[in-house]
Amino acid sequence: MIKQSSDTLKIAVLLTFIGGFLEIYSFLLKGKVFATTITANIILIMYNIYSFNFSEIIKYLLPIIFFSFGIIIVELLRKRLKKNSVHWREYILLLELLLVVLIYIFKDVRYDMLTISMISFMSAIQIQTFRKIENLVYMSTMCTGNTRKIIESLVKRDFKKVKIFSAIVFSFSLGIIFGALSIEYIFESAILLLIIPLLIIMYLVHYNK
């Protein structure tokens, strides 16, 4: 099976770094919301329904809606741009770059609902576009499945997979730490730092088709 350039470990590590960064950014700066994790938002919706705290539901429902929109957009673009001379994934990366800038522009607390939705949308288009690493399915904006793969591979003594998924989880964790540190010093402007890994990924995808 031919390995696509977008399925390499280098790109996966950069993507999971971005995923970890987005998670801590939304948690620390956007009202302790996990914008990239749908499971957490469903839990919080159900808890607020149980508590009759209906005014809080929209805060957790919007990320789910925008996550769904992200999946739809990727599938439509994939179908429309599949035969384009420019790799369709490059358009997704351009969209991610635009979202990073918009998240910064609307950094004021008044726009938290909007920026949370944009982060959730960004998470969706990323995981739907980049789904494999060396023909192995992984998730670049969450750790549950990747951690399961580490344990499963350890039991099966498949140390190549252990190495791959350990690198993925480590990179995600590094993104969280780097995100927290950068937020401490430059606050909302920290989101602009994601432009660097996104440009590197775009370069790798473009010149290694």
Question: Can you walk me through this structure?
Answer:
This protein is 71% helix and 2% strand. It is mainly alpha-helical. β1 and β2 form a beta hairpin. α1 (9-29) packs antiparallel against α8. The model has no long low-confidence stretch (mean pLDDT 91).
Topology:
Layout: H1 9-29, H2 38-50, H3 57-81, H4 88-105, H5 112-129, E1 132-133, E2 136-137, H6 144-155, H7 159-186, H8 195-207
Antiparallel strand pairs: 1-2
In short:
The chain has 209 residues and is an all-alpha fold. 71% of the residues lie in helices and 2% in strands.
Low-confidence stretches: none
The strand count comes to 2
Main sheet summary: 2 strands, antiparallel
Instruction: Name the shape in a single word.
Output: globular
Q: Taking all residues together, what is the mean pLDDT?
A: 91
Q: Termini, distance in Å? A: 15 Å
Number of helices: 8
* SSE string, helices as H and strands as E: HHHHHEEHHH
Number of domains: 1
Q: Proportion of β residues?
A: under 5%
Structural class: mainly alpha
As laid out across the biggest beta sheet, the strand order is 1-2
Provide the gyration radius in Å.
17 Å
Helix content: over 70%
